[in-house]
Amino acid sequence: MSKQGSVILAYCMVSKKHVAVIGAGAFGGWTALHLLRRGVGVTLVDGWGAGNSRSSSGGESRIIRATYGPNQPYTKMAARAMQLWTEHEKRWQVKLLQKVGVLWMAASEDDEFERGSLPVLREHEIVHEELSAPEMARRWPQINFEGVRWGIFEPNGGFLRARFSCQIVAERFMEEGGEFKEAAVLPGGLEEGCKHGLQLSNGSKLLAEAYVFACGPWLGRLFPETIGGMIRPTRQEIFFFGTPPGDSFSTAKLPVWGDHRERFMYGMPASDGRGFKVADDTRGLEFDPSTGDRAVSAEGLQRAQEYLGFRFPAMKDAPLIESRVCQYEDTPDENFIIDRHPGAENVWIVGGGSGHGFKHGPALGEMVAEYVLNEKKSDIRFALSRFHTLT
Ligand SMILES: Cc1cc2nc3c(=O)[nH]c(=O)nc-3n(C[C@H](O)[C@H](O)[C@H](O)COP(=O)(O)OP(=O)(O)OC[C@H]3O[C@@H](n4cnc5c(N)ncnc54)[C@H](O)[C@@H]3O)c2cc1C
Questions:
Q1: What is the pLDDT, as a whole number, of residue 11?
Q2: Mean pLDDT value across residues 346-371
Q3: pLDDT band with cut points at 50, 70 and 90 for residue 388
Q4: Are 363 and 80 in contact (CB under 8 A)?
Q5: Beta carbons of 71 and 116 less than 8 angstroms apart
Q6: Is the pTM above the cut of 0.90?
């Protein structure tokens, strides 16, 4: 069979069900692995490879925490994800997770989010401490706690090696028998339900019994009618500053931190000899994940420097040593989308990480595998239909 126009029979040659997963970021990679372990034949496809720098999962690090406010599914999901990240570190003998703790600072007049987090943390048995401002100042003298009223500390939280984890997941997926293809699924006609398979950028076709599209910020382009502007990629800037000599601003002495003030700022201590990370969670302008300019702005840098000097006084005037521009893929309510395509039972859309999806990868992948294989009914909270009532 010639390569050009060849049909990849990624489905039941014998009796095994085959699923194609498109996108090898945190959502697609883990979904592919969980499907494979349930006895399914899986082809994982990514246009630029697992954890590539354009993808939302392609940063160096992503925070894992369970503090999530009241009435949400994410504390439970984060607890399961933490269990799976830890299990896989042992199983694969690799370091994926740095448990340096997460400090959440309540610095806004309105602390409903933090207050509402406490019963949920207790319900899911997440180890945490409620700390007063003087106690925090005693533990972390590098931080100026001005304006911070109180805080939550999760000692088992921390950060994940993001890009590396995606690459490891794809690698282990292949070792366990999965097929990986570095090729893009061409847009066009997907809304009709993939009845004739997928056209790939290498000229071949991919045919499966079910399809999971986990294409992060690209989902709106692939499904212009079903998703369109419902997932909005936004430009987010991240800065890494050089620390003073010694370990006072490294993982040895500081946890990951989130600062809930007018603008939600967050960051993490220096690790692996790299910089001290500072980022602003405020949603930026709309961004094209394929062609967008990834140079940071002067205003963004100035804001990060001002913040750094205020909250971490010994880091005032610290030099910028690295920077990145990445994108969130925001839904209107910042909740994920995990649902069937309204016109095709066997086509799933999984995305809308909305700036907080990475940590959940292993738990979310497990859930998606259960839904795709009809082991569980999908959760209405992630359904596309919820947006039909929004104006
Ligand atoms: C700056 C920043 C900070 C963040 N911080 C955190 C954090 O601290 N904690 C946390 O939990 N989350 C965080 N997030 C969010 C998290 O990173 C994302 O929610 C998550 O990575 C989304 O994963 P995904 O698999 O849905 O998308 P992606 O990682 O974007 O993966 C989609 C993949 O699909 C591929 N693809 C797209 N189109 C096609 C096609 N047509 N054919 C084939 N392949 C295709 C892409 O190449 C890509 O690899 C942050 C995000 C950003 C940008």
A1: 43
A2: 98
A3: confident
A4: yes
A5: yes
A6: yes
Assess contact for 119 and 126: CB atoms under 8 A.
no
CA distances from residue 256 to 58, 83, 140, 277, 302 in whole angstroms, order as listed: 19, 19, 12, 9, 22
234 lines ligand 1 (CB under 6 A): no
Give the residue ranges of DSSP H helices in the chain. 26-37, 74-92, 112-123, 133-139, 162-175, 219-222, 298-311, 361-372
What is the distance between the alpha carbons of residues 221 and 223, in angstroms, rounded to a whole number?
Answer: 5
Substitution site in 27, 215, 291, 327 for ligand 1 pocket (most atoms within 8 Å of beta carbon): 215
Specify the DSSP element, H or E, that contains 277. strand 276-280
pLDDT, tens only, 219-234: 999 999 999 999 999 9
Mean pLDDT lowest for which of 1-10, 58-67, 70-79, 270-279?
1-10
Contacts of 185 (CB under 8 A, 6+ apart): 22, 45, 47, 198, 199, 200, 201, 206, 222
Q: What does each C-alpha distance from 218 to 48, 180, 234, 259 come to in angstroms? A: 13, 19, 12, 30
Q: What is the pLDDT of residue 20?
A: 98
Distance of CA 276 to the CA centre of its chain: 20
Tokens coding 363: 């738990």
Cβ of 268 closer than 6 Å to ligand 1, yes or no, is no
The Cα 66–Cα 69 span in angstroms is 9
For residue 357 and ligand 1, the question of a CB distance below 6 A is answered with: yes
Across 22-39, average pLDDT: 98
Q: How far is the CA of 95 from the centre of ligand 1 (A)?
A: 20
Find the 26 Cα to ligand 1 centroid distance in Å: 6
DSSP conformation class of 105? E
| Distance (Å, whole) CA 116 – CA 163 | 32
Show the tokens assigned to 12: 């039941």
Mean pLDDT of 170-195: 96
Backbone angles phi, psi at 244, to 5 degrees: -65, 160
| 347, 358, 359: residue to mutate for ligand 1 pocket, most atoms within 8 A of CB | 358
Mean pLDDT of 49-74: 98
Structure tokens at 174: 């292949």
Question: 65: Cβ below 6 Å to ligand 1?
Answer: no
